[in-house]
Each structure stands twice: as structure tokens, then as C-alpha cells.
Amino acid sequence: MSSDSTTSSTSTDDPANGNPDPNPNHSIEDQLASTSLTDHGDQRTPSNQENRNGVDYASASEGSAGSDQREIENSVEQVPAEVAEEEVRRSSDAAGGLTEVEEELNKGGSGRRSVVWMRTNSEVEVDGPSSPSSSGYAGERGSSASSGGASGIDEVVEDEIQEARNDSVDAVLDSQASWVPGKRHVDEDDASISWRKRKKHFFILSHSGKPIYSRYGDEHKLAGFSATLQAIISFVENGGDRVKLVRAGKHQVVFLVKGPIYLVCISCTEEPFESLRGQLELIYGQMILILTKSVNRCFEKNPKFDMTPLLGGTDVVFSSLIHSFSWNPATFLHAYTCLPLAYAIRQAAGAVLQDVADSGVLFAILMCKHKVVSLVGAQKASLHPDDMLLLANFVMSSESFRTSESFSPICLPRYNPMAFLYAYVHYFDVDTYLMLLTTSSDAFYHLKDCRIRIEMVLLKSNVLSEIQRSLVDGGMRVEDLPIDLLPRSGTFPHLGQHRLPTDSPETFRELPVGVGGPAGLWHFIYRSIFLDQYVSSEFSAPISSPKQQKRLYRAYQKLYASMHDRGIGPHKTQFRRDENYVLLCWVTQDFELYAAFDPLADKALAIKTCNRVCQWVKDVENEIFLLGASPFSW
Amino acid sequence: MGCSSSLPDRSSGRLVGTNSENGGAPDAKNIRVKLVLLGDSGVGKSCIVLRFVRGQFDPTSKVTVGASFLSQTIALQDSTTVKFEIWDTAGQERYAALAPLYYRGAAVAVVVYDITSPDSFAKAQYWVKELQKHGSPDIIMALVGNKADLHEKREVSVQDGIECAEKNGMFFIETSAKTADNINQLFEEIAKRLPRPTTS
Ligand SMILES: Nc1nc2c(ncn2[C@@H]2O[C@H](COP(=O)(O)OP(=O)(O)O)[C@@H](O)[C@H]2O)c(=O)[nH]1
Ligand SMILES: [Mg+2]
């Protein structure tokens, strides 16, 4: 199928042609057009000039689907530094790449797609001899991020961790649907084959090499292994260089040093270094949330201090956080998301929370699962989205909060890592909970009174029942993307009044029916930079299984990392096509849009559709975002 | 406004039966009392409270975080009612330094150990000392040996429990949250020992 012919019914499919968008200022067509990256870009070595302009563009040739392999190779060679280095680094490890493919196949996604994946295999099988330009990029990255193989550390690590092969156990357990809280495989240690095959390990250890936390296996049995990691870290630190990343075959070992506490991730998931490092930062933050940073003092008194008793009973908090790395985009977007609600309903909730905040509560947060209903901060107090993520994870993963109201010391690492706050937590129903944070350890009865008052208001204004309804209705669906671009009042098209009629005269009819939205749109995430909030569309076919969702999030995550690698310019766009998706990313000063399309989607139409998504989000922003919470400014 | 901080703080005007519901006049027949449970993690504090308050026993362990607050009112034979406001603490080491937050001002402290665990018995004695040093001077203390249903695994004898309690002027009882044995008795005995308010 030729994509050129699929778009012939519209005259605006060429980004360089007339601009049909009513918002000419920020049109993504302009972005792409101005970068002069037309479909068959032939700039094999993008100039530095372009990079400095913030243009980050990975173009895939648009041709027949039959020649995927060639196209994708081409596209890899075209991409500028940020994208190319990832691909090129992998090319030195072709064997590992093939193992990864087997793994994907054995984990048994949709069989057909797996075969296609195997055949085209763009992400892994980059042609061996790398071009002079791409090796240059790799070198650039190597100097900034890692001491690489030169230190001879690779061999040490390789001894410890064998190649991961088909890990069918993990494939099942890692899916969101079947995820059970708590630590698994406690019987394992570093001598177990199964332990060595796990695709992603996380460790926390002390600078003296004492284990503090391990995702898999019993920390105490891993003492020897921890000591090895500690030895690696101090070896490199003594050399005056802080180790951050070591590559060993297809494994990345990422280190994060936080005073006396070391965090390590060993992964063969192909996630970018920046993402893994961000995950280690969150794990550290979670630990601070439980203990505060004053735990460092224990190490000053006694370098051999054993921290595990202090974290007693919190395995489930960490395992739930680590699990969220594969399903919760907040973990890499550093933004929070709201439960969609009618504006008046959210206002009603916000008003009573504001009353409470005025009476000496630092933060009043009403949440439904991991989504915010409303939140209010005392004057000048602002809550970082990462703190919210960690707090919500802590509360949701600790079953005891559901049993009765509670009052617990917690620390918000971004707010003040040194001090405990006190959190009053109460569940109104199985999904909806209130958190009132205060600096006063005596405030329990006051907060309890506040909660009673809040509960009365929420019941009277139907907030709790509306929350339940929203849960049932779900959020934005790509199928509901309005097809006309007329500005409309912000109503949330739950009932599908804007749904694309099947006999639409519009241009989308030749796409496969029943999959996703117009123009092959499968999914999107829109992040408002000003609000620090994001909205993500509901998953629908064909991204329906937890495994596919995880893969898409990983792809977004990679996109995010490449877009944020060197600071965000005012405007950046990226268009990637591989055998799984077309991914489109558009970053402006106001927002970031990540969209996934059918891999055969037409590029011009996809771009146009992204503009429509942005317009749609603006139309319904009253319902999907928390707006204008006055004292709540970053 | 209902929760302005200028309102009398209930937690400071608290307890020992001097407060009645909803800010009404003190009432000799309706006693409100703050009770704190202390003891090692895993001895069954939460199960004891849930058995008492909800009549349930859930064998799947739900580690307490910080402290949970529950209340339950019982009626005594002399037609007095006692409302227990119960702080079920976590017992984990990281919160040890924060325990005063919960036992400060408590009229009753229930120190729990697990009869199958000598360690937890030692920990109970630590809590007793801590309360003698930093608790209210007139605090009523109970020593509870829980998991009495596991008598075949018993490692702390009844005699040891009684001796420890007597030495420290405590009331002693063995309970089982699992079978509900002695759970209500525990709270009834505590209620009987409460000082009755003399004010009208
Ligand atoms: N056999 C038995 N098990 C109990 C009893 N009370 C609690 N448990 C178990 O002991 C474990 C810890 O109980 P929990 O109430 O969470 O302890 P806490 O940490 O002191 O609150 C749970 O697995 C309970 O099922 C009891 O009376 N008998
Ligand atoms: Mg408990």
C-alpha cells in the first residue's frame, strides 16, 4: 500500500502546502515544514546548526510496506545525534539484539505482529559497520555519560550477570492485570539462574556495601553481590570519576550515588540511560518519603549501619513503584493527571479543600486511584508532581490505609527532604481518598474534623458519585476525536456525539476499521507544561494488552528522553516510524504531545491529527485539568 | 469555621473520661478515653483492634503504616458507656522515635507481645519502660500476650507475663484475635479501671 495514494483525497497532506489549521502560530505543520524535512529526507548527516535549533527529527521514508527493512535502516542513518546514538550503541551488540527479539517472540504477544517485528526488526538490527557520522555521535555520548569499557569494569559485571533469556515468569508477572503486590522470588539470590535472568534489577545499598533493598531476592542473601557493586562504585569514584553507566553486553548498569546511599539498576530492557536514572531518583525519593534524609546521620555515626530494619514492611511500596515504571507515564513525564470531571464538580471539591487549607493544612489532596480530583496548597506551598506520585504510591500500596483513617509521618522529598510532615489519610470508598498534610504533629483531631466537613460537602454536591461515574466512563478516547476543527464549548464527548461516522466524507475512511481513531491514531499523551499535568487517552484496540501498553509507554519514554536530552528548545518535533507505530512528538513552550499511530499511517494526516488532538484538549481542558487553583503555582 | 485552629483542640483537652461527645458538658455516664496499642510489629495489635471494633479477623497481614485511628463504644453494667479512641501504632523501628506522638496524652496503653516470640516479649518490656518514663503519670497499662491460640508454639509462659505485669503495676491478660478469646474482656477490664470523673 502506498501512503501517497492513501492521502490523495485531501489537498493538505503536504506539510509544505497550505495550512488548514486555525491556529497558525503553533501548527505542527509549520514546525515540520520549517525544518525542511520532507518525506524522503536525504540529509544523512544533520548539521549541528539544525540541532542547535532544537530540531530533532527522525524521518522514516514513506514507501511501500514491503520494504520496511530498507526504510528503517535508512531512517536510522538519517537521525541526528540524540536518536542515532541509541541505535548505534546497540549495533555493536548485534547478538544481544537478536536475543531480545527471541524474547519478545517467546513472551507471546500477538503472533502475527511478532513475526512482522522479527522481519523488520528496526530497533535492534542496525547494520553492523556504522557510518563515520554515527560513531562520532556515539563517542560524544560516551564521554558525557559513562566511563564506558575503558575502565575494564564491564568484565566484572558480566561475570555477575548472565544473559537474560526468555523470562516467561516475568512476562506474566509484569503485566498490570496479573500484578500482585509485594516482593516476589524472595527465595532467590545471585547464585540462582532465575535471579540472573531477570530483566531489570533494582538495588539500594549503603556505601559500606550493605544491602538495603533488592527488587528480587532476599537482601541479606545478596550481601556478597552488594559488596561487588560497592567495589565498582568506589573503584571509579577513587579515580575521580563518578560512575553513572556501565554497559556489559546488552545490559546497562546505572548507578546513582546519594551521599551514603547507592542505587543501582541493572537492566536489559533497552530503556534509555536517562529513564533508568530517573527511575533510580524516584526510588530514592520513595525511600526519603518513608525515612527523610536524616537517615544519613545514622551512617555518620556508624558507617556499617544496617538500614533494612528501618524499611521494614515497605517492600510493597517499592515493588509497586517499580511496577508503575511500566504503566504510569507520570514516572517519566514528571507531571500528574486528573480524573475527568465536570468543571462545577471539581470546583465544589476544590472550594472545600481550600477552606481546609486556610485553617492550617499544608496540602489537601483528593485523589481517585492515581488521579487527582482536586488539590489545594497553603499559601506559597507548592507540591511537586514527583512528590505526589510518591505519596500516592505510598498510600495506595499500603493496605492499612484502607482499613481505617490514619495519621502517619511522611516526608515530601521535593518539598523538604529533611523533615517529616504528618499525613491524615482517609478512604471515602475503595478508590477515592483524602490526604491532608500538616507540619503539626498534634493536628490529628483537627484534620479529622476537616475530613468530616469535607465528606459532608462532597456528598451534598455529589462529588463522590460523579467520581465513580467518571471511573466507569473513562477518559478521552481516540475514537471520539472531533473531526471538524470548529471551536466548541468544552463538553466531554463521553457519549460519542463527536464520534466519527463510518460513512464520513472525511479522509480517514480508507484506514482499517475498528482500530483506534482517525488517521490511524492509536493513543496520545498531552502534557501541559504550565500546569504540570498530563492527559492520556484511554487505551483501545489495538493497544489493548498490558504488554502492548507497556511497550508503548517504553516507546514514549524513549521519545521523552531524546526530546529532553539537551534542554528543550522552543519548538521541537520528532517523527519516527517503525514496524510497531508511527510516533509523533511535538514540544512547544506550552505543551508536549506524544502520539502513536498505526505504523502505516500517513505522515501528513498524522500531523494534522495531532493538531486536532491539541485543539480537542484545549476544548475540554476545563474537565480534564485542574485549572486556576490560585495558591497552587509552581 | 468548623475546623479553624482557634477551636479548642480536642487532643489537648483530652481524655480520662472528662470529655463527652460533641463538646457537650462532661458527663459521668459517658466516658471518652484515648488508648494506644504498642508492641513489636507482627504481634497482632491491628488484629486485636479490628476484632474489638469490627468483630473481624483477617489473617492476611496488612502492615500498619504510621498509626491507624479507630473508635468503639462499650456499655458497662452500671450503664456507663466508654468510648475508646484507639491508636493502633505501626511498631516498626522507623517510627519508634515518633511513638510519643501517639502515646502522649493517652489514658490507657496496651502493650502487646506474641506468646510465641520471646523477642516480642522483650520489646514489650522496652515499651513499658518507655511509658513509665514518658507517658502520662497516671496512665493505665495493660500487658497482653496475644496469639494464645498458638499454645503449642508458646515460648513465653503465662507466669513470665504475670510477673512482668505485677512488677510494673499492670493488668495482664492473654488474648487471641483469631478466636476472639478475651478480646472483649480486655477492653471491659480496662473500662472498669478508668477513673470516674467526679465533676458533674
Ligand atoms: N494465630 C494467630 N495469629 C494472629 C493473631 N493475631 C494476629 N495474628 C496474625 O499475626 C500477623 C500480624 O498481625 P497484625 O495485627 O498485623 O500485627 P501488628 O503488626 O501488631 O498490627 C497477621 O498475619 C495475623 O494474621 C492471633 O491471635 N492468633
Ligand atoms: Mg498493625
UniProtKB/TrEMBL annotation, chain A:
Every FUZ/MON1/HPS1 third Longin domain range: 520-620
Against InterPro entries, the record matches this protein to: FUZ/MON1/HPS1_longin_1, FUZ/MON1/HPS1_longin_2, FUZ/MON1/HPS1_longin_3, Mon1
Query: Which residue ranges have biased composition labelled Low complexity?
Result: 1-20, 127-148
The residue ranges of the FUZ/MON1/HPS1 first Longin domain are 200-321
Q: Which Pfam families is this protein grouped with?
A: Fuz_longin_1, Fuz_longin_2, Fuz_longin_3
Question: Which spans does this entry mark as compositional bias, Polar residues?
Answer: 32-52
Region Disordered: start-end pairs: 1-151
Residue ranges of domain FUZ/MON1/HPS1 second Longin in the record: 360-453
What the protein does?
Answer: Plays an important role in membrane trafficking through the secretory apparatus.
Q: Which family does the entry's similarity section mention?
A: Belongs to the MON1/SAND family.
Q: Which PANTHER family does the record associate with it?
A: SAND PROTEIN-RELATED (PTHR13027), VACUOLAR FUSION PROTEIN MON1 HOMOLOG (PTHR13027:SF7)
The name on file for this protein is Vacuolar fusion protein MON1 homolog
**Species, as recorded:** Ziziphus jujuba (Chinese jujube)
UniProtKB/TrEMBL annotation, chain B:
Stretches the record annotates as Disordered: 1-21
Keyword Membrane included in the entry's annotation:
no
Task: Check the record and name the Gene3D superfamilies matching this protein.
Answer: P-loop containing nucleotide triphosphate hydrolases
From the Swiss-Prot or TrEMBL record, what is one GO molecular function term? GTPase activity
As recorded in UniProt, coiled-coil segments are none
Tell me which InterPro entries the record gives: P-loop_NTPase, Small_GTP-bd, Small_GTPase
Q: Where is the signal peptide, in residue numbers?
A: none
Q: Any idea which UniProt keywords this protein has?
A: Nucleotide-binding
Its name, as the record gives it, is Ras-related protein RABF1 isoform X1
- What species is this protein from? Ziziphus jujuba
Please name the gene that encodes this protein: LOC107413830
